Amino acid sequence: MLEDRMRAASSPTAWPAAYPKGYAVVDVETTGLAREDRIISAAVYRVDARGEVEDHWYTLVNPQRDPGPVWIHGLTSDVLEGAPLFPEIAEEFSARLDGRVLVAHNAVFDWQMIAREYARARREAPVRQRLCTIALSKELGLPLPNHKLETLAAHFGVVQQRAHHALDDARVLAEAFRPSLRAAAAGEVRLPLHECRPLTEWTDRSVPRQPAGYGGYRQTSWRPARKRPACPYPNPGRYEEGKRLRQGMRVAFSGDTSIERDLLEDRATEAGLHVATSLSRLTSLLVTNDPDSGTSKVVKARQFGTPVVDEAAFGQLLGDVEPASEG
């Protein structure tokens, strides 16, 4: 089936009218994964409706704090010291994103980091939809052993030159996105597009790290109210330790998380899980970093015998969610 799609994608076909007219393939490197972390480099490959590259852009960004895991991204404080602040590159970044669908590998993360930077700068990113290439590879049924960027690149014969360098990662993703998009068009596959809701305010709790000129913003856990789409899969029951999560499982969260709650919930939703706001006997799994706390969800989980995992374990489980159609 996949081979048929790929062959069809290489020949002229009628392009789906509902597909977007252009994309911005994005990669950002950051100081970490938490809500107070910052972007330190960003790259955008603009591609047209059929995935052909139009141009690309790259910049370093001075986070005015420690650069985080230098052993991963290679960007030291000395390298970033003379780089522009995010407000200084926001206009150019916007020009690259404007009117396009944001495409990224694990797009929820890139979008959340970008949205927070714009909110700090008292601006709004001109992005209304995003497309995750992990989700697209699942829609296409690509025979991948995992969903790492290097695995997707190898599947399409794309050679990585500098892993965890924003410009090269964006190039690799753009080159892998083109055949994915064409295979989707040939097979009339629905693109996994998701709405992007920009933050409209921001305050920083980590005041000592606050950059000058950011208008006294302080960080908070503020997030816009939103209604999530209904999960399309039936609840298969409770999570069993040592096994995979399965699409349709009801997941609840309790307590503080190192990664922003919206990010975790969006990742769960995009993986096909049902994010529940309360805990009941139907809940498949509770995610909490403090299983001994007295919150109502933790207490109910004890009463109902609901399985509990911490944030780190949940992140690992999200990387390999079993499709609802299996078994």
From TrEMBL:
<dbReference type="GO" id="GO:0006260">
    <property type="term" value="P:DNA replication"/>
</dbReference>
<dbReference type="InterPro" id="IPR012337">
    <property type="entry name" value="RNaseH-like_sf"/>
</dbReference>
<keyword id="KW-0269">Exonuclease</keyword>
<protein>
    <submittedName>
        <fullName>DNA polymerase III subunit epsilon</fullName>
    </submittedName>
</protein>
<feature type="domain" description="BRCT">
    <location>
        <begin position="243"/>
        <end position="321"/>
    </location>
</feature>
<dbReference type="InterPro" id="IPR036397">
    <property type="entry name" value="RNaseH_sf"/>
</dbReference>
<dbReference type="GO" id="GO:0005829">
    <property type="term" value="C:cytosol"/>
</dbReference>
<dbReference type="GO" id="GO:0003677">
    <property type="term" value="F:DNA binding"/>
</dbReference>
<feature type="domain" description="Exonuclease">
    <location>
        <begin position="22"/>
        <end position="186"/>
    </location>
</feature>
<dbReference type="Pfam" id="PF00929">
    <property type="entry name" value="RNase_T"/>
</dbReference>
<dbReference type="Pfam" id="PF00533">
    <property type="entry name" value="BRCT"/>
</dbReference>
<keyword id="KW-0378">Hydrolase</keyword>
<keyword id="KW-0540">Nuclease</keyword>
<dbReference type="GO" id="GO:0008408">
    <property type="term" value="F:3'-5' exonuclease activity"/>
</dbReference>
<dbReference type="InterPro" id="IPR001357">
    <property type="entry name" value="BRCT_dom"/>
</dbReference>
<dbReference type="InterPro" id="IPR036420">
    <property type="entry name" value="BRCT_dom_sf"/>
</dbReference>
<dbReference type="GO" id="GO:0003887">
    <property type="term" value="F:DNA-directed DNA polymerase activity"/>
</dbReference>
<dbReference type="InterPro" id="IPR006054">
    <property type="entry name" value="DnaQ"/>
</dbReference>
<feature type="region of interest" description="Disordered">
    <location>
        <begin position="213"/>
        <end position="239"/>
    </location>
</feature>
<dbReference type="InterPro" id="IPR013520">
    <property type="entry name" value="Ribonucl_H"/>
</dbReference>
